[in-house]
């Protein structure tokens, strides 16, 4: 999938070290429980790249690498992921970018493309974002997408998260 400035494509094995860099950066994981184990991230990325169907249960439930259209540089990843939220099956729209790519509108541009794909190609009628109450940057992306804060809920691990929701414009 392409946007004005970005390419969104399935995750490839060659993305593994960038994804490790992403999850090792304390700025990225500030509101996500801290840096993740590099080997686990590397192994999971390779698994996703080689056999996405085995990793993800639902059609359309997957991660996308986001690259700059002009240089091909890997800058982040976005996902549409099936989540159970208080016993209800939801589709979560999520976005994670290298700090060097923050502040340029890339996350909003990529997430808007994925939302469009979710509604118009995959037929979803509703998307949520699950956001730490202190993660203002993430909340601003959600708000720019047109998402509205619906509620604040307890999540596994004793944390509290905000649920933002976007409904398809289709009848
Ligand atoms: C959440 C995250 C993706 C947001 O990144 P971001 O750079 O703030 O968001 P965008 O890429 O949409 O950029 C928007 C900013 O770029 C600015 N901008 C600059 N040039 C722009 C342009 N040409 N077009 C659009 N916006 C532009 C906007 O004004 C906006 O700044 P503001 O929020 O200060 O007003 C990023 O902080 C991140 O990866 N965080 C760590 C992972 C994370 O927490 N993910 C969310 C989990 S719920």
Structure described in brief:
The chain is an alpha+beta fold and 171 residues long. It has 5 helices and 7 strands; from the N terminus they run E-H-H-H-E-E-E-H-E-H-E-E. The protein has one domain (6-167): Gcn5-related N-acetyltransferase (GNAT) (Aminopeptidase).
* Strand elements, count: 7
Bin the helical content.
25-40%
Order of helices and strands: EHHHEEEHEHEE
- Main sheet characteristics: 4 strands, antiparallel
Features:
3-stranded antiparallel sheet, 33% strand, alpha+beta, binds coenzyme A
Explain what you see.
With 171 residues, this protein is of the alpha+beta class. The protein has a single domain, classed as Gcn5-related N-acetyltransferase (GNAT) (Aminopeptidase, 3-Layer(aba) Sandwich), CATH 3.40.630. Helices cover 30% and strands 33% of the residues. It is built from 5 helices and 7 strands. The protein has a 4-stranded antiparallel β-sheet with strand order 1-2-3-4, with helices on both faces. Strands 5-7-6 form a 3-stranded antiparallel β-sheet. A hairpin with a 3-residue loop joins strand 6 and strand 7. Helix 1 packs antiparallel against helix 2 and helix 4 crosses helix 5. It is globular, with a radius of gyration of 15 Å. The two termini are 25 Å apart. The model has no long low-confidence stretch (mean pLDDT 94). The site of coenzyme A has 21 residues, from strand 4, helix 4, strand 5 and helix 5.
